[in-house]
Amino acid sequence: MNTVQEQECGHVISDNDVKGNYAIPQIAKTFVNSQCLEHEIEQYSQILIKDSNDEYMTDIMIKHFYKCNVKSFKKDTTGKVAFHKFFELLEKHRNKKIASSIHAKELLTYKKNEVQQIQLSAMWDGIIAWRKLGYNYCDDSINTLIMSKWYKYMDDIFVSMSEDEYINILTDYMYIEDIPSKYLIPVSGLKSFSKWLQDDDTLVKVEMYKDVI
């Protein structure tokens, strides 16, 4: 595919700004390769990250689209929107606050570049992780659906906890973002809700968004 002039890519967001989002202690090296698409101001960025052992931290490259003149979801505004197409850390790098640290930097970078909104497709544990980072479900009924699955999960693992703990969890947490992380990640050999959700093929992908400005 032909590309437009390089400065038009910078008009969307610079590679240096994208690379800066991954400047956190857990990431030793970051490589960014961007391509501008012809006929419209649109940028496709691929990102590779390595740890201190010079090993890649994802199976597949992180992929983002940045587009101008796009209508934000559920808002009557048009401007820059970031579409996060793929981000999945290898198992050994999860639950180390890497995603949340990157996300904090992304918000600052996107505000500087006047990106109005982030949109993404979440799968399995991402359906929970991104919600806990302030993302909203595009379909308002998803929270009810996920909570119904949470209650089913609790029934399945009830034998592994006390009755008081079981009752407290059911009555204290009404939204998925309120549930403590200890129930969402593997602990002491107990199957986490994230893993249980992954094994349930009735909910594979969920569209989500977060307003930046």
What are its keywords?
213 residues, alpha+beta, Aminopeptidase, 2 domains, seven-stranded mixed beta sheet, 7 helices, 7 strands, globular
Structural summary, described in words:
The chain has 213 residues and is an alpha+beta fold. The chain has two domains: 123 residues, Aminopeptidase; 63 residues, no CATH class. The protein is 32% helix and 25% strand. Strands 1-2-3-4-5-7-6 form a seven-stranded mixed beta sheet. β3 and β4 form a beta hairpin.
Q: What structural class is derived from the secondary structure elements?
A: alpha+beta
For the residues shown, what is the average pLDDT? 84
Q: Which topology of the largest domain does CATH recognise?
A: Aminopeptidase
What is the helix tally? 7
CATH architecture of the largest domain: 3-Layer(aba) Sandwich
Characterize the largest beta sheet: strand count, sense, and whether it forms a barrel. 7 strands, mixed
**Shape from CA axes?**
globular
What is this structure's SSE topology?
Elements: H1 6-12, H2 15-20, E1 29-36, E2 42-50, E3 62-71, E4 78-86, H3 98-112, E5 115-123, H4 125-132, E6 136-137, H5 142-157, H6 163-172, H7 193-199, E7 205-211
Parallel strand pairs: 4-5
Antiparallel strand pairs: 1-2, 2-3, 3-4, 5-7, 6-7
